[in-house]
Amino acid sequence: MRFEGKRAVVTGGASGIGRATALRLAEEGAHVLVGDVDEAGGEALTAQSDGRIAFRRCDVTDAAELEALVAAADGIDLLFNNAGAGGAREPIGEVSPEEWDRTMALLLRSVALGTRYAAPIMAARGGGAIVNTASVAALASGFAPTAYSTAKAGVLHLTKLSAADLARHGVRVNAVLPGFITTNIFTRHLGLPEEKRDVANRMIAGVAAQAQPIRRAGTPEDIAAAVCFLLSDDASFVTGTSLLVDGGMTVGARHSW
Ligand code: NAD
Asked: Is tRNA-binding given among the entry's keywords (predicted)?
C-alpha cells in the first residue's frame, strides 16, 4: 500500500501501459483520475475499480483540457504522463509540417504541459512525483518512425531539466523507457480494425521476443511495476533518471556458439 492517501493522474490510462499502471496505483491505495480520448475504455476501467479510479475525457494535445484534467483531480501527488500513439509515419523527407506538429503535441508538449500544470499544485502540497513515458526509440534508430523517436528523445531531456527545476519544490521527475510491450499501439498505428488486433499483436510479440535476451514480450504490468517504483517513496533519492524496461533489447540478443 505504497500510495495510501495519494492522488494520482494517469494520461492514456484507458488502455495498455497506462491502464495497468492506474490499476496498480489503485491496488496500492491511490485515488486515480484517468484522462484519455477513449471514453469506452475509460468507462470500462472505472467499472472494474471499486471506485478508486475515475475517468475524465481528455485530449492531451489540447492544453485547456489537460489543465482541466489536472485541476479535476482535486489535489495531485503523482502524475504519469503516458498518453501516446505512433504519430507521423513518414520519413523525414516526406513528413508534413502538420503531422510533425501533431506528433510533437501528442508525445512531447503534453508531457511538458502536464508537468507545468501539476508541479505548482504538488509543490503547494509539499512535493510529489512524476513519471514520463519515453521509449527505447529515444535511444536507438530503427525501432519507430522519425517524429515519434525524436519526440521521445525530447522526453528524456525534458525529464532531466524538469527534475532539476522541481527538486527544490520536493517534486521528483523520472522517465521509463519501455521496449516492445504487447498493447494495441502497433495495431492502431497500422490502422488494423479491432477484430484483427489479437492475431497481429501475437505476431508482433513473437518478433519482439526474438529481439531481446529475455525471450518474451513485455507486458503492460512489467512497465506498471517500474513506474510505480519510480512514483513511490522507494525511489525517494531518484530523480532525473530514465529506467529502461526492455527485456535487455538495447543490450542485444546473444547467440550461443
Ligand atoms: P495503447 O494504445 O494501449 O495506449 C495508449 C493510450 O493513449 C490509449 O488509451 C489512447 O486512447 C491514449 N491516447 C492517444 N492519444 C491521446 C490523446 N491525444 N489524448 C489522450 N489520450 C490519448 O498503447 P501503450 O503501448 O500503452 O502506449 C502508452 C505509452 O507507452 C505511449 O506513450 C507509447 O508511446 C509508449 N510506449 C509503448 C511501447 C510499446 O511497445 N507498447 C514502447 C515504448 C513506449
From this structure: no
Question: Is residue 184 lining ligand 1, measured as CB closer than 6 Å?
Answer: yes
pLDDT digits (tens, 9 = 90+) for 126-167: 999 999 999 999 998 777 999 999 999 999 999 999 999 999
How far is 40 from 70, CA to CA, in rounded Å? 21
Is this model's pTM higher than 0.95 or not? Answer: yes
Residue nearest to atom 15 of ligand 1 (CA): 84
Annotation says 148 is catalytic: yes
Distances (CA, A) of 22 to 15, 57, 201, 255: 10, 15, 22, 37
Q: Give per-residue pLDDT as tens, 185-217.
A: 888 888 888 888 888 888 888 888 887 889 998
DSSP-assigned beta bridge partners for residue 10: 34, 80
Cβ neighbours of residue 137 closer than 8 Å, sequence gap 6 or more? 143, 144, 148, 149, 152
Measure 71 CA to ligand 1 centroid, in angstroms.
22
* HEC letters along 30-57: CEEEEEECCHHHHHHHHHCCCCCEEEEE
Q: Identify any residues that bridge with 130 across adjacent strands, giving them in sequence order.
A: 79, 173
Instruction: Report the share of the chain in percent with pLDDT over 70.
Output: 98
